[in-house]
Every structure is written in C-alpha cells, then in structure tokens.
Write a structure and sequence with these properties.
The chain is α/β, with parallel strands linked by helices. Helices cover 33% and strands 21% of the residues. It is elongated.
Length: 392
C-alpha cells in the first residue's frame, strides 16, 4: 500500500527528523530547546539542494525551510548544527528536499525562559541524584610531578574515543593544566548566567584556567575552593555524561575533602611512579578513603619503563605501583588492583602538551600505539569495576 505525501505529511516528517538533532553544547535536541521556530514546506519543481538526495529524478520535490534560532549571536557551533540538520533530512523517502536553513537568534525573553527551565533541572548537584548514570573518577596523587594531569587528560580522551559521553573538571585550582593539554583556549558560553563548557577531542571541560589564563596565580583557601567545585557542578550545563573525571590537586588538601563532601559517589584512582619516594606518599592519597566515603578503584603506575633498542629500562626503579596497590588493599580491606603500568615515552608529554592527548590520532580516534592500548585497558577495567564495593 503506497503512502501519499502531502505538505502536511512532509512537515510532520521533517519535524520528527529534527527531533533527533542534538545541540552539541547543551546535549538536548534542537526541538526540545525551542531552537526550531518553524518549518515551511511547499511542493517544488526545482532541482534538490543536494543531488545525492535524489536518486530518482521523477520523485516529487519539496522546498523545505527550517527556521533555526540560535541561543547566542555568532554561536561558534552553528555550522555543526546546520550540518546535523542537513544530515537528518538526507534520504527522505517522500521525495527530493530542497533544504534552506534560515538562522536567527532567540529573543531575550525566550532565552531567559529556556535558561530558567534548564537551571530548574540543575538546582541541586546533578551528579548525586539517585538516577544519575554518571561514573565519577577522581584522579589523585600523593605528590606533584608524577603525571597525574597527563593521566587524567589521556584517560578522558580514551573514554570519549571509546564512544562514552565524557566530561572533565580541572579541580587542581593552583596547578590547572587541562586546558593546555586539550588545546582549549575558548571560554565557556554564558547563557544568561548558565555556563556551557568548551569541548575538545570529545571531552567537555571546565577549569579555572579558562577564566584566569595560564599566567595567573590563584590564591584561594578552604571555603572558596569548595565553592569553586560546587559552581563547576551546579552552574554549568553538563547534560548527562557517562563519565566525569576530576583532576585533583596533589596530596589530601582542601579540594580532596571538598570532592568527598560534594561527590560522595566519586571513585578514586591513585597515580604514582615506581620509586619509593613517590609510592609512599601515594598511599596517603588512597588512605583518605578511610576517613571519607570514597572508594579506591585502583592504582596507575606512570613512567614505569623506557624501551630503548630492545631493552626495557626501569629508570625510576620498579614495584611502586604494586606496593601502593597492596598496601591500600591491606589497609582498606578490599581489593585495590594495579590497573596498569604506563611507559615513559616522549610523545606522551610532547603530543599532550601540544594540545592533543597522546592516545588519539589526528582524527580523534584511538591511536595505534602501546600507550593508547594501555589507557584503553585501564578505562575498561574502571568501567568493569563495580561501584560501591568499598562498603562491603
């Protein structure tokens, strides 16, 4: 039985297709956000705007105008939204479509109503709701210089490349570095007081560094530090990420306490290097779980070895990761595994500090390298780890 396509039927089909087009910043469909103010449809005898849509020249043609209202003038992702609209309307079975996208900006009143609706959903910390699907991994270390931020950046990029909706917070207020490691120079988009985080390599990121700049010293203490984390969680539109990573400051100071208080469902990952001087203080970072409701998921040993002309060199000794994992297992009363041992390779520093996590190739896919495979193994081990096991 054939289907008769009319202007009304095509209009409804176009609206249904647009209902699957996601805004890349807010993570909601452009229809749900009210960005589609209307769709005009009329039969046409002209050629399709995209010849690839018209394998059958005898198919009826339709002129379709999508009226798109952006949330802010000069939206940097408007081209992405337009491409997604075009892709959603490609291959329409009812005929050839000549698609025009008429772009304007939301009125102030409409924008205020939208932001008020989104803020109402985020009045409380969204990551502690009972129905939150987000796994939160806080990356900690006992001391600086062990590559904690590099591990955080590459682990976040790995999750994103594996297809997970990924977000990251640079909670190292004094030593923020994630914006540089991801090559982010843009500030968050401000929608009437609600911030939309910048994104790079598939990871949405917030850091004090996107406001202060890389050359500014931050002189904050206790209450203000805690408030900064609360604002990153509640005043930022995160959507519903599968994974949220926090790059903690070294040691067990104010920010670690704030994370435990604000995100009691966070899971701790301890980073160390092989030498005793690093592993001994790394244990202290993990033992914070004895006093706070944090589960320690495992240990990552960084700079474990360097392969040179067929010989594996242990430049910083060996066994540090195993010592930390075993000590935490004994002290905490549950298994804290050694999740992985990362090699000391120049590209892990050079590529990442150049603004692209070393686990990714230039197209944003996981690279064909031992480093990428190591991080993928760590990511899969973390996802397979059952949260809440520490309470057993």
């Amino acid at each position: 039985m054939s289907t008769t396509f009319t202007d009304g039927r095509v209009h409804d089909d176009v609206m249904a297709a647009l209902g699957h087009v996601m805004d890349p910043e807010l993570g909601r469909t452009i229809v749900d956000l009210g960005m589609v103010s209307g769709v005009d449809v009329a039969q046409s005898a002209s050629a399709p705007s995209d010849p690839a849509q018209a394998p059958d020249p005898s198919a009826p043609a339709w002129d379709v105008t999508v009226h798109l209202e952006l949330t802010v003038p000069g939206c940097p992702l408007s081209d992405t939204i337009r491409r997604r609209i075009t892709a959603a309307l490609a291959g329409y079975p009812g005929g050839r479509l000549n698609v025009t996208i008429d772009t304007s900006t939301m009125s102030q009143g409409k924008l205020e109503a939208l932001v008020a609706r989104l803020k109402a959903e985020r009045r409380a910390n969204p990551f502690t709701r009972a129905d939150s699907k987000t796994r939160i991994f806080a990356i900690a270390s006992g001391k600086g210089g062990v590559g904690k931020s590099s591990v955080t950046a590459n682990l976040a990029a790995t999750f994103a490349a594996m297809g997970y909706d990924t977000a990251a917070i640079d909670a190292d207020i004094y030593g923020f570095s994630l914006p540089r490691l991801f090559g982010i120079t843009d500030r968050p988009t401000n929608l009437n007081g609600m911030l939309v985080p910048p994104e790079a390599w598939g990871v949405r990121l917030m850091s004090i560094g996107v406001f202060a700049g890389s050359d500014r010293a931050i002189l904050w203490r206790g209450p203000r530090l805690q408030r900064s984390l609360e604002q990153f969680l509640t005043d930022v539109w995160w959507g519903e990420p599968d994974v949220l990573l926090l790059d903690l400051a070294p040691g067990t100071g104010d920010m670690t306490i704030s994370v435990a208080q604000t995100l009691p469902n966070a899971e701790l990952v301890v980073v160390t290097t092989p030498q005793p001087s690093a592993s001994e203080v790394a244990v202290r970072a993990g033992l914070v779980a004895l006093q706070m409701p944090l589960q320690v998921d495992g240990v990552v040993e960084n700079m474990s070895y360097f392969d040179h002309k067929g010989e594996r060199l242990r430049l910083f000794g060996e066994g540090g990761g195993e010592r930390v994992a075993q000590t935490l297992t004994d002290e905490l009363g549950y298994d804290v595994p050694l999740l992985g041992q990362l090699p000391l390779v120049p590209e892990l520093r050079e590529t990442t500090e150049g603004g692209r996590p070393a686990v990714l190739d230039e197209n944003g896919a996981l690279a064909d390298s031992d480093v990428a495979r190591s991080f993928e193994s760590i990511a899969r081990a973390l996802l397979a780890h059952e949260p809440g096991r520490a309470a057993a």
